[in-house]
Amino acid sequence: xxxxxxxxxxxxxxxxxxxxxxxxxxxxxxxxxxxxxxxxxxxxxxxxxxxxxxxxxxxxxxxxxxxxxxxxxxxxxxxxxxxxxxxxxxxxxxxxxxxxxxxxxxxxxxxxxxxxxxxxxxxxxxxxxxxxxxxxxxxxxxxxxxxxxxxxxxxxxxxxxxxxxxxxxxxxxxxxxxxxxxxxxxxxxxxxxxxxxxxxxxxxxxxxxxxxxxxxxxxxxxxxxxxxxxxxxxxxxxxxxxxxxxxxxxxxxxxxxxxxxxxxxxxxxxxxxxxxxxxxxxxxxxxxxxxxxxxxxxxxxxxxxxxxxxxxxxxxxxxxxxxxxxxxxxxxxxxxxxxxxxxxxxxxxxxxxxxxxxxxxxxxxxxxxxxxxxxxxxxxxxxxxxxxxxxxxxxxxxxxxxxxxxxxxxxxxxxxxxxxxxxxxxxxxxxxxxxxxxxxxxxxxxxx
Amino acid sequence: xxxxxxxxxxxxxxxxxxxxxxxxxxxxxxxxxxxxxxxxxxxxxxxxxxxxxxxxxxxxxxxxxxxxxxxxxxxxxxxxxxxxxxxxxxxxxxxxxxxxxxxxxxxxxxxxxxxxxxxxxxxxxxxxxxxxxxxxxxxxxxxxxxxxxxxxxxxxxxxxxxxxxxxxxxxxxxxxxxxxxxxxxxxxxxxxxxxxxxxxxxxxxxxxxxxxxxxxxxxxxxxxxxxxxxxxxxxxxxxxxxxxxxxxxxxxxxxxxxxxxxxxxxxxxxxxxxxxxxxxxxxxxxxxxxxxxxxxxxxxxxxxxxxxxxxxxxxxxxxxxxxxxxxxxxxxxxxxxxxxxxxxxxxxxxxxxxxxxxxxxxxxxxxxxxxxxxxxxxxxxxxxxxxxxxxxxxxxxxxxxxxxxxxxxxxxxxxxxxxxxxxxxxxxxxxxxxxxxxxxxxxxxxxx
Lengths: 448, 448
Prior knowledge:
The structure is a homodimer.
Chain A: H1 4-15, H2 25-38, H3 40-47, H4 52-61, H5 64-73, H6 76-84, H7 88-101, H8 103-112, H9 115-125, E1 142-144, H10 149-161, E2 170-174, E3 180-185, H11 186-189, H12 198-201, E4 210-211, H13 216-226, E5 230-234, E6 240-245, H14 246-265, H15 269-274, H16 277-303, H17 306-311, H18 314-342, H19 351-381, H20 384-414, H21 423-446
Helix pairs in contact in A: 1-2, 2-3, 2-4, 4-6, 4-7, 6-8, 7-8, 7-9, 13-14, 16-21, 18-19, 18-20, 18-21, 19-20, 20-21
């Protein structure tokens, strides 16, 4: 991102008509954020100075709270103009945002849109958030087989002049029922004879499309696997309804990664984005509550050995080490498994070798840290047998960590549960319970 | 991904010349993985049956171990053919892989490439892995300002026929010194008068390019922010050297996310990908060793209170609960901070409000779990004051968790250290040490 003073200067220059280059919407949004931090009054003032044709894009780039404030500031006429300046997918998103903040205002805005825009927005909003249809844009460059290339180009020209179409990439060929029958890259169209029809120049060729009800995560995987920059979207009846472009996929990949990272830590990505403290508190507390139950379970295990601890207090001093090492080693294994499963590198087919690898690494670590910690415990409390006890417990618990760290995600996946959700708490339960039990149990047998 | 039997069938049909549609390289790679699991001998047999022009792509899609085996199987002539069938960026990657597995063979392969391919590969390999130049492809559609559009199209046709160019998207206009002076989308070129020069039809227009030495992560951020599908790459002297496309960015985003997820859990993404047990063990052990030191530090803190524990053993039973809740709450905060900082949602400018939010959530959780755990401890050990002690310790430790969880990543970032690396261990140290100290310290003062 450019420096804020640079953006500010460019923006002022544009307003003074000293340059034709308006900063990019994301840069103006960045500037707005900055202005808001310094003085919320100036923020409101600046909103009115943003050129009308980029207002929509700027609004979409603002963080939730500022977006809400901006939507409040603008009149419904201004918002309708902002929506109309956007591509259909972005227009639907902005309408969605206005609905979230102010339902009445959203209706007023919606009423002011023209018929065609309303239809496009309705179509996109009819799909669930995780369906391809919710991510597509409806602006397309399309043609029929019996049109000449020249006629299609004339239409492209009109669409471009109207500002309806950007980043075209592909032409979509449809039949009379508006079913998609072929896709044609612009670079191939350019090499065609412009006076002839598409039918005369196109052989049968495989093409790929996605359905509007397809899961957007799976669509993203297709883009990644086959290196697509754009894909057409069809309805259940093969009719062309829109297209998804690589910039949508950037967002999907980032969101998916955020979801995984958050779920592993026991937070919900959607709640966190809302930036509402009450919601965040409730969501995090519910996860911490589950964690409290497992911690109590671990304490119950410790409670079984209260007489042992009373007889030899150093056990209480050392026992968190065994649990902590197990938890950390298990988290390493778990994280690698969850991520590699998400990327498709580990499937049930090759899960066995991944499991073996994790157990091998766990045992090696177990031996290493058994030795290190055994010597430390011996030296610390001047009792060789205490070293033996903690060493054995370390081997057992690091094995448990590797075994459960690798198998919990696989098991959850088999049960059709997202491995990123819940894996961590199950693992911690295992390493805590086994860690305390093995260490205190061995101590009771060997030391007392 | 299609079902394996479908891919197998399609592949067989192609080999029998019953269809012209060869499955995609990633599908063939998937089939190969499957065959290898069932019978490694069949895997070697199948390698020879892969049509020559997709061998390179298939090789690149294989997991490391199988890739190594396949590179071993193919002769250096076969590998050279595979490399020549690839786009320059992929060719450079495959050469890199061959170097990793067998340096002598890589030289033999390299010698067999033609001059031009060698130059392209050398150029790409001259950049570091994290530089844009290492990710670019050198195949381009370029023209000069004084060429006519028709001449440029004639060259495009030749390049396409030679299979040199795919997914063109943009034309790059260079001057006599091969400096990039403009970019032109194909959709705009198509609307031009083909008989005139570019100079006659193009006004001055801003365009964006990246430098070959730019950090690829920053390039990815530019793609995401401005919704690009392709960007030209220039050298330090503004000379056009290549281009980066959206599929490269998909990979960068996924890799960056993997790196963050792994770093938070104390594993190294590059080492994990090697699939070498010794390397993985060494890397993970070094992280566990750091963790061991912090665990020992926590034990030293417990050791300060050995007389307190000896006097009242339930303290040993309950103390891991305080530490565990702090660790988990802190991880929630830490994860959200690290991810939002990586996505650019949190910067120093708005860090204060993020910090306040985290502390507010931490205090709310502290009050809630102080109450719950206070009541449980009271009921469990029939001692009201024990409930007061654990409740107070819970509030203190959850506050510590929120405060350090939010400020450690900010502090590391300010010190120019990647917040994902090392945050976790610093946080655990804080929550363990403060957790044990506050609980046992309060117990000593209040209970004994």
